Amino acid sequence: MKHQKGSLIIKIPLVTQQTGKGDIMDVDILRQELKNNNIDNAIRVIEEFGENKFYESVPYLIKCFEDTSNHKLRNTIAIALADIGDWREN
Question: Using one digit for the tens of pLDDT, what is the confidence trace for 71-85?
Answer without folding.
Answer: 999 999 999 999 999
